[in-house]
């Protein structure tokens, strides 16, 4: 009978595991006589230079395998479940939760709310700390797992309880002190809600969070996303152009103050604030190494700079083709300007750039990452698309070829009768995809 353990799904060719003749279907039971609970245990124990693996085989045998390796050498095994354990779901009822604003009838995985510290370490997800046990905290400190990404929302304990609808949410912030004292690197996030945690509350939060520098490396401020499916939910309002300017004024004030004192800008505005305020994006140095790219902070600046660097090395020629690009409202003006620059460099090339309104979630959702297949089809079906349609990579979940509404890339290509290419996020990839190098 198979012992408990973690099923191996893949062996990396040429790896230590491959040399030991491990195969998919084997189970990892223990390392150095310690049973593996989850990915935290595995990541920590597998770094050692001398290992004894206890492996359960399909036929019920157990193999004990000794390994001598360099400290950072990978064993070369992957597991069916990336966490090697069940995912921890979120028990808060946040007033800004995007999942609560989705329509019925979508695939079930889209309704799962994670609040798992292990996903924070592995994938950069943000956690509220309310779902973290004493054991979780101790293991993060013992294994020095970092960075841990934290959804602060506010440092006002009473307000945090109200925003998360969790009476323990205020006390959960004390866990940040534990991480700080242990030297665990952290990044933070605030989802800003108009009239709730902005203004003076935002100033208070920035002041409080700055006390955790240097272990708290950065904090992003992003506007709440509001879909049209908010019936029965907290009556949140969208930020106006003037509101956005006020938010940026607070952030810029604190950036100057903190940079002078600590040499870091620390607090960062999501790109959407600059777009809504119609203000110029900061230069690259302002982003402190782009610590919050995945949170939409500095993505446009990095794309523009990479584009300019690659563009300066291009030689004009007479290549002739027509392609199209579809993007969300937020990025449209930047993508359009880059396309025009490329048409100027290659006069016989035509690039159509189409702005897609998010009718599925509502027009207040403007990022390309939340566009659906049905909106693309509806708004592109009568357009000139040329030889190829380019879409940004964030429009799909990593490793998938399906949009949020379950329409596949194949279905999009079939309906629109055009080849679809997914473009990576760099400026070089953008140029190469457009000019078809």
TrEMBL record:
| Annotated PDZ domain residues | 1-39
Pfam families according to UniProt = DUF512 (PF04459), PDZ_6 (PF17820), Radical_SAM_2 (PF19238)
- Domain of life, per lineage: Bacteria
Name of this protein: Putative radical SAM enzyme (TIGR03279 family)
């Amino acid at each position: 009978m198979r012992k408990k353990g973690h099923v191996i799904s893949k062996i990396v060719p040429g790896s230590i595991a491959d040399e030991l003749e491990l195969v998919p279907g084997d189970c990892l039971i223990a390392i150095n006589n310690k049973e593996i609970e989850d990915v935290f245990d595995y990541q920590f124990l597998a770094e050692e230079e001398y290992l004894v693996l206890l492996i359960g085989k399909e036929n019920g045998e157990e193999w004990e395998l000794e390994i001598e390796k360099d400290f950072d050498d990978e064993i070369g095994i992957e597991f069916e479940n990336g966490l090697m354990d069940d995912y921890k779901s979120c028990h808060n009822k946040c007033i800004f939760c995007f999942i609560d604003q989705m329509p019925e009838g979508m695939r079930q995985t889209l309704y799962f709310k994670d609040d798992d510290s292990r996903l924070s370490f592995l994938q950069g997800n943000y956690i509220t700390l309310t779902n973290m046990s004493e054991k979780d905290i101790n293991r993060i400190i013992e294994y020095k797992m970092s960075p841990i990404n934290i959804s602060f929302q506010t440092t006002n304990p009473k307000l945090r309880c109200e925003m998360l609808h969790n009476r323990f949410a205020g006390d959960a912030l004390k866990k940040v002190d534990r991480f700080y004292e242990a030297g665990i690197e952290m990044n933070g996030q605030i989802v800003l809600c108009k009239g709730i945690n902005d203004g003076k509350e935002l100033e208070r939060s920035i002041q409080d969070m700055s006390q955790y520098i240097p272990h708290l490396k950065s904090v992003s401020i992003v506007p709440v996303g509001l879909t049209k499916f908010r019936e029965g939910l907290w009556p949140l309002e969208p930020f106006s152009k003037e509101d956005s300017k006020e938010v940026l004024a607070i952030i810029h004030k604190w950036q100057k103050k903190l940079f002078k004192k600590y040499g870091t800008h620390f607090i960062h505005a999501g790109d959407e604030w600059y777009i809504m305020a119609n203000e110029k994006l900061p230069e690259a140095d302002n982003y402190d190494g782009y610590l919050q790219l995945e949170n939409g902070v500095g993505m446009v600046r990095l794309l523009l700079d990479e584009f300019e660097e690659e563009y300066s090395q291009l030689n004009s020629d007479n290549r002739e083709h027509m392609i199209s690009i579809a993007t969300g409202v937020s990025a449209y003006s930047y993508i359009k300007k880059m396309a025009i620059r490329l048409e100027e460099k290659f006069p016989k090339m035509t690039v159509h750039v189409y702005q897609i309104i998010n009718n599925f979630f509502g027009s207040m959702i403007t990022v390309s990452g939340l566009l659906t297949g049905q909106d693309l089809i509806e708004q592109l079906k009568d357009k000139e698309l040329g030889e190829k349609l380019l879409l940004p990579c964030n429009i799909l979940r990593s490793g998938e070829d399906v949009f949020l509404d379950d329409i596949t890339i194949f279905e999009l290509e079939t309906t629109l009768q055009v080849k679809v290419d997914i473009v990576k996020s760099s400026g070089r990839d953008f140029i190469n995809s457009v000019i078809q190098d």
